Amino acid sequence: MDAFSDPQAVARYAEGPPRLVPGFADLQRMVMLLLAERAPDDARVLVLGAGGGLEIKAFAEAQPGWRFDGVDPSAEMLDLARLTLGPLVARTDLHHGLIDIAPEGPFDAAACILTLHFVEREERLRTLGEVRRRLKPGAPFAVAHFSFPQGDRDLWLSRYAAFATASGIEASQAQKARSMIAARLPILAPEEDERLLRDAGFSDVSLFYAGFAFRGWVAYA
Known about the structure:
This protein starts with 6 loop residues before the first helix and ends with a strand. β4, α6 and β5 (about 140-145) form a beta-alpha-beta unit. The radius of gyration is 16 Å and the shape is globular. By secondary structure, the protein is α/β, with parallel strands linked by helices. The chain has helices at about 5-10, 15-20, 25-35, 55-60, 75-85, 120-135, 155-165, 170-185, 190-200; strands at about 45-50, 65-70, 90-95, 110-115, 140-145, 205-210, 215-220. It has nine helices and seven strands, in the order αααβαβαββαβαααββ.
């Protein structure tokens, strides 16, 4: 069963990122600050892969004037986002589907955290292009996901599993996750991720985060 539609897995989702992604809370904070460099106090922000609501909650608590449109293909994860957001959901419109279901905008900023590593290369490029098309000129876009040199794939996935184990996850579960990621996720090398951002029309692409197997970039429409 897809983990994002399994009720038990969805209920436990919020426990995962802090134990699997180095500096997860700081990553969210950095993304918010990068968006805030150019987004106005009353910004309209697009969040792709918004299921769970963790990013929107972090952004909304830090920026009380921002409004959000969140997009996610999992209805169950969007239900979790509503619970996570609580009263903050009043500033959020949640949309069930892929990027095509998102409003046209134009948006003042956009973010996509821990999502694009699920998307095959060509669809990833199309998705990035659709995000770019919905942004105002010069608007910031921050993205973070699995990205590491493909020649050292086993080494980086071993480091991912080691970090998970050191964070309190059972070693057997960490190794199971490693095997699943190796078999299923279309992870790209960092230089290819940067190339896709440029090919989608973004400029001034720069790395702002690197945490073992994860990388994050900020770019501008």
